[in-house]
Amino acid sequence: MGLVYADIELINADDLALARKHFIGEEEVKRIHLNMLADSGAFMMAINENIQQMLQLPFIEKRKVVLGNGAIAEFDTVGPIMVKFKNRTATCNAFVLEGDTEPLLGAIPMEEMDVLIHPHRQELVVNPAHPEYAVLKMK
C-alpha cells in the first residue's frame, strides 16, 4: 500500500472556545488547511514547528516517542487542536516536529473521527458503515 494523504483542517480549539464565548470574533480563530499523510501506524498526530507557530498552540508537556527506527526522541506536545475531515471532527493534542517536517494524522484522531484508509482507492474515507456520523467504541 502506498502513502495516503487527506485534506484536513486544523483549528486552534482554544480559539474556538473563546469565539463561542464572544471574547474573539470567528474571523480571529486560527486555522489551516493541509494535505496530511494519514498514518495509522502513528499513535498521535504530529505537526511541525511552522504549523504550531501559525496556530499558536500552547505547550502542554514534553513526551518521549519511539520512532520508526527504534530510536527514542523527545518532542513538545501542544494542543488542543480540532481536526476536521469531511463531516467529521476530533479534538486532540499533537507532537511538534522540527521545522517544516511533514505532518502526520495519527490513529487517535482517525479513530475519533471514525475514518478509514481505503486500501484499494488509496485514500482516507469516512467509515462506510457510519456515513452520517462517527460511531466510537466504548469498550
Give the uncertain stretches in residue-range form: none
Derived from helix and strand composition plus strand pairing, the structural class reads alpha+beta
Share of residues in helices: 10-25%
Average pLDDT for all residues: 95
* The CATH C-level class name: Mainly Beta
Q: Quickly count the helices.
A: 3
What is the topology?
Blueprint lengths: L4 E8 H8 L10 E8 L6 E4 H7 L3 E8 L5 E14 L2 E10 L6 E2 L1 H7 L1 E4 L4 E4 L13
Parallel strand pairs: 2-7, 3-6
Antiparallel strand pairs: 1-2, 1-5, 4-5, 5-6, 8-9
Give a short synopsis of this structure.
The protein has 139 residues and is of the alpha+beta class. The chain has helices at residues 13-20, 49-55, 107-113; strands spanning 5-12, 31-38, 45-48, 59-66, 72-85, 88-97, 104-105, 115-118, 123-126. 16% of the residues lie in helices and 45% in strands.
What can you tell me about this protein's structure?
The protein has helices at residues 13-20, 49-55, 107-113; strands spanning 5-12, 31-38, 45-48, 59-66, 72-85, 88-97, 104-105, 115-118, 123-126. The chain has 139 residues and is an alpha+beta fold. The chain has a single domain (5-126), classed as Cathepsin D, subunit A, domain 1. Strands 1, 2, 3, 4, 5, 6 and 7 form a seven-stranded mixed β-sheet that branches. A two-stranded antiparallel sheet has the order 8-9. The protein is globular and about 45 Å long. The model has no long low-confidence stretch (mean pLDDT 95).
